[in-house]
Amino acid sequence: MKRAAVRTEPILYNRLTVLRAERGLSRQELADALGVNYQTIGYLERGEYNPSLDLALRAAEYFGLPIEAIFSRRPFQPLSSQLYPPRPASE
Amino acid sequence: MSTSSASTPHRVAGRGIDRLSRRARRLLVVVAYLSLPEAVIVFWLHGGVPGGFSPNSYGASSWEVLVLAQVALAGALLDRSWRAGIGAGGLDERQRQLRDRATCLSYRIVNAAVVIPVVVLWGATIVSPFNTWGPVTLDPTSLIALAVCVSVFCICLSLLPIATVAWLEPEPPSEI
């Protein structure tokens, strides 16, 4: 049986995978742009590493988005449900 | 938005080795640190301890080479694996964090590795079966075995932070 890794720091959710896919970037290309190792991007996407404020700001600047659109302490809602919120049943 | 994908020669040379699976890295750590008890056994077989096994019947001299080669090879691979992941700009913030954590853990391991043997040696000097060894004499062959023991210990000690990083780092993601 596999043992679950003990995590001491809070999970920081992010949309890096979606944003990277939208722009057709590889991990290496994004890593080069942000000045980190490509594995760091992978760990960020998998939620196994929380970025520093500096790295989070660099990512926000690179994608041209506010930081809260990329990183959140709560799980993100799917983009489809944000763009097209469910209509009230009376309509 | 810039998407530079040009790979430096350093990075290309390091491909593969920096992507060793966690299992492979941990296996290398185990192989490297197995050399410590092996070196002690070789020292024992070589007559380093009075009353130990006969040195010649076990071919201990070839074992010494094997033990040294084992720790050197495993250590070199671990070292190469760590260095291959370092970009042209040096360590990034995650790697620095991991290195600091590994260094901190290494000091704890060294503390335990020093305190425990000292207590064991102190115990061995007062427990009667070990107290009947008598004087220890070192002939040239035993000196070689002792030198191997000390060399392996030094290599393992210097390897400790890198081995700790290799042990701690999660499964590497792919590049794509």
Give the helix/strand layout.
The complex is a heterodimer of chains A (91) and B (176).
Chain A: E1 13-14, H1 16-22, H2 27-34, H3 38-45, H4 53-63, H5 67-70, E2 71-72, H6 79-83
Helix pairs in contact in A: 2-3
Chain B: H1 9-14, H2 22-45, H3 60-84, H4 93-126, H5 140-168
Walkthrough of the structure:
The complex is a heterodimer of chains A (91) and B (176). Chain A is built from 6 helices and 2 strands; from the N terminus they run E-H-H-H-H-H-E-H. Chain A has 91 residues and is mainly alpha-helical. In chain A, helix 2 crosses helix 3. Chain B has 176 residues and is mainly α. Chain B has one domain. The longest helix of chain B has 34 residues. At the A-B interface, helix 2, helix 3 and helix 4 of A face helix 4 of B.
Gist of the model:
By secondary structure, chain A is mostly helical. Chain A is built from six helices and two strands, in the order E-H-H-H-H-H-E-H.
Overall body shape of chain A: globular
What structural class do the secondary elements of chain A suggest?
A: mainly alpha
- Return the string of H and E elements of chain B: HHHHH
Distance between the termini of chain B: 18 Å
Q: Biggest interface between protein chains, with counts per chain?
A: A-B, 27 and 21 residues
Strand residue percentage of chain A: under 5%
Please report which band the strand proportion of chain B falls in: under 5%, 5-15%, 15-25%, 25-35%, 35-45% or over 45%.
under 5%
Q: How are the strands of the biggest sheet of chain A laid out side by side?
A: 1-2
SSE sequence of chain A, one letter per element: EHHHHHEH
Number of strands of chain B: 0
Please give the share of residues in helix of chain A: 40-55%
Oligomeric status of the shown chains?
A: heterodimer
Radius of gyration of chain A: 16 Å
Low-confidence stretches of chain A: none
| Helix content bin of chain B | 55-70%
